[in-house]
Structure formats: C-alpha cells, structure tokens
Amino acid sequence: MKNQRSTATLNHYSAGGWQSWTLVELRQAAEEIALGLHHYAAIQKGDRVGLLMASSVPFVMADIGCLLAQLVTVPMLPEQPLESREYMLKETAASVLFVSELKQVEPLLPKLPDLSALRLIVVPEVPKDLSKHRWDRLQWALPNTVEMVTLEALRQRAKWSAAAVQALRAALHPQDLATIVYTPHASGRLLGAMLTHENLAGSVISAFSTLPCLRQGPGEVALSFLPLHHIFARGFIYGSLSYGQTIYFSNPRLVMKHLRELKPTVFFTVPRLLEKVYEGWQVAPQRLKRPFRQLQQRALSWAWDLASRYPLAYTQSRRYRAELWLAQRTVFGPLRNLFGGRIKCFISGGAALPAEVMTLLSGAGLKLCQGYGLTEASSTLSFTRRQWSRAGTVGVPMPGVEMAIAADGEVMVKSPYVMQGYYRAPVETQRVLEPNGWLHTGDRGEFSADGLLTLTGYKKELFKLSIGEYIAPRPIELALRQSPLVQQALVVGPGRKFCGLLIFPNMTVLMTQAQLMGLSMPPESLLSQPQIVAQYQSLVDQVNASLPLWSTVKRFQLINAELTVENGRLRSPGQLNREALYLAFAAEIDRLYQLTPRKALPESARMPTVPEPPDWPLVSWWPKIRTRFPARLSN
C-alpha cells in the first residue's frame, strides 16, 4: 500500500455525503490505531477484537490496525440479534470492541458484566447533539474494568515513530491468527472459522493475479455495497487496497444511484441484485403501450437469442460479432448504462448465480466473474475467467487450490487458504477437516471434461440465499414442530431471494380444532380457510421473532401430504429427505416465489438488502422517440 499513489482514495457515503481518505491517510490511521492499542497493558498479542461496524472506511482502519497490532478481529453485523453479538464477544473473550455508532453500546450495557474480558470500547466520535451529561452517564454505566474512548482519542495515545511501526511489522508472522469469522452451523450454533494472515494474503494474491481485467492504480474504481463482516467482501477490499485502487462503499438503498454517478470499473455484488436486473429486463415491455410493446418484445427476443448463443470464451463468427455489436449498442445499451457504462468486471459471490442471468450480462458485453468459495477457505476457491467461463458453472480452481469430488459427490478442497479450524469447537473441526488437510465443503458438484466445476446440490443442511446469507433450516423446522398443529416443516430457498416454508399439518389435531371452530369441510378446503392460515401464520411469526431479519420466513404453504420412510420422503423417522421433498413439491415451492411474500419485511429492514433497478427502457432509441412525439404517443 505504501508504494501506491496518494491520489487513490477510500470513500464511504453518510448523511452528509461522501467522506474520503487517501491511502496515505488510511495507513497513518491504521498505524496509530495499532500503536494506540499497544498503549494498553491489558491488551496483549492474540487478544480478540470485536468489530461491530457498518461497511465503511473506519471499519477498514480498525481492521488493518488490529491486524498490524497482532490482534484477532471478530467482525459482527450490527443488524444481527443482540444474543448473537453477545455470544461471539463472550466465546472469543474479546478485550476490545469497536462500534460504528454510540447507540450500539447502550443495548450491550446490561451484558457487560458477563463479558469479563472486555477492557476497551472504541466509538468513532461523540455525536455533536449528545450532551456532556449523557456522555458522562454512559461512562458511569460501564464497569470499572471497561474504558470507552473515541477513535481520535485512541489515535492520539499512539506514540508514532517509523521505528515503532517497523517493529510492529517485523513481529507479524504468516501463521499468526488474523480473524475469526462466524457462520451458522446446521444446528443453528454459530461457529468461528479461524483464518491466519497467510490464509487471507494467499487467497487475495491468488484471486487478483488471475483477474486480467483488474489494473493497479487509482484509475480503477471499485464500488461495493456488501457487508464487510463477510470474508468475500473483505478479501476483495484487501486486494483493491494492495492494487492502489479507488474504493467506494455504498449502501443497498443507494447503490444503483451511485453506480450511475460514480461510473465504477469494478463492482462487487451478490447474485440477487443481478437477478433483479434480469427480472426488470423480462417485464420491461409490459410498461409500454401497443404497438411499442410488441416492438420492444421483438427487440428483446432478438437480443436474448443473440445472448443465449453467446459462446463464452470462444471464437465468434464475423456475422455473429456484427449482430452482437448492433445489439449491444441498441437493445443492450441501457442495460450497460444502468451500471454506469464503464464496468469492466462484475465480481459476484456469496451465492450461486443463475445461468440465464450470466448469459444475459455476458451477451450484453458485461464481463462477469462468478465465484465459489467458503468462509472456511478464506472465501474464493474458483471463479469464471478468460476461457474458463460458462454459464451455470463456477469456473476452475484458483492457483494453489486442489479440488476433488468424493464418492458421494461432495466437493473436497485442499489449499493454503483453508482455515485452522473452528474456534473452541474441536469436534466440529474434525467433522470438516481431514488429518491430511482436505476440507469437506458440504456442497455437491461435478467437473466437466474441460475442468469447469458445476455445483449440483448440498450435502450439508445449510444453504445460501441469493443475497449471500447462510440459512440453517433445522432449528426453524424443529421450533415449528413443537406445535401439535405441525407434523413436519420444510424450509426452502437455496439460491432464492428469501426463505420459504412448506408446512405439513397434523391433520388429526387440525380437524379436531376445526370442528371446535365450526368449520366442517374436506381437508384440502380447510387448509385455505383464513382462520386456519392465520393460526399457522402466528406460529411462523413466533419463530421469526428470534431469527436474523434475512432468515425470517416470508411466505409459507400448507400441504396435506404423508411424509414417511416408506414413500421416501423421510430418511428415518423425523429426518427429512430434502432432495426428495424438493422434487416432489417443486411446483408448490415455485409458487411461493411467484407471489408477493406474505408479511414481507420492508426492503430497508433486511440485511444485506438488494435494491430494485429503476424503471429503465431497454431500447436506447425509445426515449428519444417518446420525447420528440409526446402528444402522439400518449393517445
């Protein structure tokens, strides 16, 4: 970072607009944070530091400063339930906690007596509208063993010198533990993957060295709205910093606006945003009146036919190139402008990207790197690039990554980027890490003849939504089965935009209750009655109350069906055969996602959220016609 030009900046958006720091200022801040933390005798090498912070430049400062000080960062999402944050701080015995806002400290005050290792809380600044009396009250509410300071005060305690900074760097070792990143286990328990400096640095260097579209220097503008508590987002920010690129941290609500304003060359995203663009493409003709609707539909069909025949990474005929050139400057033009018009590379990760979305974007001339990885392997393991790009695949492994397919179809991985294990969870570590270093990914896959990996399903019970968040279905299902009204429950949603649920009622109990309510009708009719649906909605609401916002059930379906070992829908009494159920009830599952989610949370309340693309025409000459002849077109 020290050899990069000072014109490169890090920027994040707040209520007052964009705030910017040069890389020189970032390095200075990180060094002062590291030296400031060393000022405290109670904070020792290897101590854990909670980062309860939004994705912003201060997060990066605190993260790098702690790594330089040989401390271990534990990133936490501010929107996570308080119980989850308390659990991570307590299990890791965190001695320092950085927060984004002072208000994040107040809910933790009653929990501080149980966080016996905590010694220091760092807040970014004291709000201008906060009275000295209230600040003093917060200080008095802290235990005697805990001090609260601002980030600026921490930096001022540093006794900076070139020799002191050099001593910090010299003390670092590649095998030192760098971060503990928590992910949900199938049981619902949070497990912390332990990643070293070597894990992180090796993964980033390997990924960036094989991305030919990325260039060094401030002219490369990277935009991200992803939460930095995900190792995928952090890894690519580390890489952008090492390349001296200009970085912007947006947020889900404004990212589409910032794409058009900032015109980035690199965009870090999750599949859900790209899916929404694809959905907008599909419904665009419906916004027009005849005959323009038919004209636009024909234009879209022609462009889609070209895109679907786009031979990713292969030589194209002269005629095809000419047609595609025309489509990219007419029908696909607004699609490219939607992202600012300068995008060289989309980097999509965190979940699987549907093949049709990659086909559309690639045909439109937008390069897309679709990756596959795990937190337990420092994020990225393989991704599409150069000649190894094909829709529906996740490309080929990165340099340094060995992959194999086990007899049961599970993808196995071995590389220098694999974690050291789960923090204070030796049994769970032994289940996923073989003594010879091979990691069980829990995903099923297969390789094509030319070495491209296709993911075919899940061996583990965890799955990911298209927003990149893990879902542990079993705790949700077990909670619902506590009710006598529920025989079985199946959480669905792999690769989808939200969590859905199939509920198989206990018909004996339900019929008895229906008679007491004065409802006498066949079971199939009974399941659609508002009174009955409301009862099950109440059960779902009770379970949702204890879940993170992104994993709450947005829609469910009541189904009268037998689930037994004999019919293959149970593996054993009480254990669901998920693959068989997904196939048997595929139509019901699809129907959940074709309708508006019942009691969906507002988009701004979810984390991470993905914005809707604006209402945009798909034929670039259409706005000019509409502007020139407004009266005629309105008839």
TrEMBL record:
<dbReference type="GO" id="GO:0004467">
    <property type="term" value="F:long-chain fatty acid-CoA ligase activity"/>
</dbReference>
<dbReference type="GO" id="GO:0016020">
    <property type="term" value="C:membrane"/>
</dbReference>
<keyword id="KW-0067">ATP-binding</keyword>
<dbReference type="InterPro" id="IPR042099">
    <property type="entry name" value="ANL_N_sf"/>
</dbReference>
<dbReference type="Pfam" id="PF00501">
    <property type="entry name" value="AMP-binding"/>
</dbReference>
<protein>
    <submittedName>
        <fullName>AMP-binding protein</fullName>
    </submittedName>
</protein>
<keyword id="KW-0547">Nucleotide-binding</keyword>
<dbReference type="InterPro" id="IPR000873">
    <property type="entry name" value="AMP-dep_synth/lig_dom"/>
</dbReference>
<dbReference type="GO" id="GO:0005524">
    <property type="term" value="F:ATP binding"/>
</dbReference>
<feature type="domain" description="AMP-dependent synthetase/ligase">
    <location>
        <begin position="13"/>
        <end position="423"/>
    </location>
</feature>
<dbReference type="Pfam" id="PF23562">
    <property type="entry name" value="AMP-binding_C_3"/>
</dbReference>
